[in-house]
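tool_call: predict_structure(chain=1)
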Amino acid sequence: MTLLLAVLICTMQTHGTFSIVAMDPETGEFGVAVASKVLDVGYIVPWLKADIGAVATQAFANPYYGPWALEAMEQGKSADEALRFVLERDTIPEERQVAIIDASGLAVAHTGDGTLEWSGHKTATYVSVQGNILTGPEVIDSMMTVFQKTKGPLAERLLKALKAGENAGGDKRGKQSAALQVVMKNGGRNGVDDRLVDLKVVDNEDPVTELQRIYDKWQYWFLSSAYLRFADKDKDKSTVFLERVHALLENALAHDLKDAGIYNNLAWEFALRRMYPEQTLQAAHKARELDPEAHYIMDTLAEAYYAAGDYEQAIFWEKEALKKEPENKFYHAQLKKFEGALKDLKAKK
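tool_result:
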């Protein structure tokens, strides 16, 4: 071990933390959610690499555990082999807590005898929960139960598990920060990187609640678009991704969101796919109610009616959009498409 590493480890603070590391076998996503009474826990604990695995390093945290374990798994080692590898390279493994999950879904964890009470972990296929300086074992028990019972996107399951851990007591010193990270190959914005979800609350009196608030809005703008992109790209998993986005559409319709863009984006995507026409129209109308003068929302509403087979209403709303933007070439092409569809329908009758 180098002198620099020894100095780094010896000068680091002790952190009380509870976290969950998991994999979604249906999509191949890896994720970590974590909360703690420490500034910016998301800067310390999560380490992830798409197609390889995920790591949470905490307690008297050794930040080298993340890259060490990921590199080991990238070279073909399993999660348990990677765990042995990182512990053997450390001088004080009894002070550490770490969880690792690999591409097969194997989850392993280590809670050293020197970690502060209450500390412990629980693992199952595709998931590990762990914590130190907790109010008691009920924290990780609650997290495991909620994660395994919850359906839907991995990010949502991780967040619900994190909230369950907090509700059960969490870090006995209090609250300060939280983070949620999920990776998937080309899962980032427009596929430029692998960061499917990358959210954190650095310093807040109620960080898990704030993280949930951010995610509740973020998911409709970015997670939905990523899943739709994967539905188009990966035909083998298309149904899974479309079901996930449909669940987001249903959730948005069930809540009184004050963001026209959310409803408009969801309506547009499903209108183009001619899926769930009634709900697509509901979303388009909600968008217009929130922003009645927006021409692009009128165009979405027209496309939604076209997808539902109501060509007359499609023509009406496209003409309304053109009143706002009379030189818009796309809107003129849309109108021509809708009028052609109505003409063909009448000819068949």
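agent: The CA atoms of residues 155 and 182 lie 7 Å apart. Proceeding to next step.
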